[in-house]
Design goal:
Organism: Sphingomonas mollis
Radius of gyration: 18 Å
Order of helices and strands: HEEHEEEHEEEEEEHEHEHHEEH
Cofactor: Mg(2+)
Low-confidence stretches: none
Pfam family, one: Inositol_P
Helix content: 25-40%
InterPro entries: Inositol_monoP_metal-BS, Inositol_monoP_superfamily, Inositol_monophosphatase-like
Protein name: Histidinol phosphate phosphatase
């Protein structure tokens, strides 16, 4: 079923609820802990997701929920709300306002609505399938990029990549920089990078090892602004994607980006592009 105004209103309400929880913890004691996978989690993460889940359970009792902190609740409608209360917890705990709350509506495995919300700076991107992306209510567009060399590439950190993925990313960096080390990538940013790309400030974002709650919301935002979201093989991102993510502001550069990533031999690591 198509995304309705009621869906959009609920998504905004979810972002509002999460932001109200998160802001008082920013640059304040936040109860940092490490999860079993050694990733950080705070009271803000847990309480923000709990607040969003309560709203969904009240307003959309038949829909599924997939959240980073509290897991999956199966639904009966073929629709699932995918939540990452704080994408970029490391940035949040460091007092850097480049983290974000991610909210997606996924229908039959396809992301059809997404919000990237930066609650401290009160910046919000919303993308809906078939509609232009809005930034604080105003339409935004990605920028054109005439050639891969000289494009601006961002990633949170290649240290988060599977080892076999790093050479492929560095091949992209080499193609963009033209051998000039000072033209290297922008590091840090988490989901905020994708909002910046949608608003025309970055050209490419590349990530590896993302979960559905890390990327589902990004797809409608970037594509509604005129960009392209795909995996490292050029395939669309769905609930079954394995976490290799590319955002390309100018779709005309897609083949160039994929060619650069494939320009090194495939590793035997199951995580390498083309292996899944």
């Amino acid at each position: 079923m198509p995304v309705t105004q009621s869906d959009i209103d609920l998504a905004h309400a979810l972002a509002d609820a999460a932001g109200a929880v998160i802001r008082p913890y920013f640059r304040q004691p936040h109860g940092l802990e490490l999860k079993e996978d050694r990733s950080p989690v705070t009271l803000a993460d847990r309480e923000a997701e709990a607040a969003m889940r309560r709203l969904i359970e009240a307003e959309r009792s038949g829909d599924g929920i997939h959240g980073e902190e509290y897991g999956i609740r199966e639904g009966v409608t073929g629709r699932q709300w995918v939540l990452d209360p704080i994408d970029g917890t490391r940035s949040f705990t460091a007092g850097r306002a480049i983290f974000g709350t991610l909210i997606a509506l996924v229908e039959d495995g396809w992301p059809v609505l997404g919000i990237i919300d930066q609650p401290v700076q009160r910046e919000r991107w919303i993308g809906v399938a078939g509609r232009p992306t809005l930034f604080n209510g105003v339409p935004v567009r990605t920028r054109s990029c005439a050639a891969l060399e000289g494009a601006t590439v961002a990633t949170t950190s290649p240290h988060l990549f599977a080892e076999g993925d790093v050479p492929h990313f560095m091949a992209l960096v080499a193609a963009v920089s033209g051998g000039a080390p000072r033209q290297g990538p922008i590091y840090g940013g988490d989901c905020y990078n994708y909002g910046l790309l949608a608003s025309g400030h970055l050209d490419i974002v590349a990530e590896s090892g993302l979960q559905l709650y890390d990327f589902a919301a990004l797809v409608p935002v970037v594509e509604g602004a005129g960009g392209r979201m795909c995996d490292w093989d050029g395939d669309p991102l769905t609930a079954s994607s394995i976490g290799h993510v590319l955002a390309i502001g100018d779709p005309a550069r897609t083949d160039d980006v994929l060619e650069a990533i494939r320009s090194v031999p495939h590793s035997h690591d199951a995580h390498g592009p083309g292996s899944h």
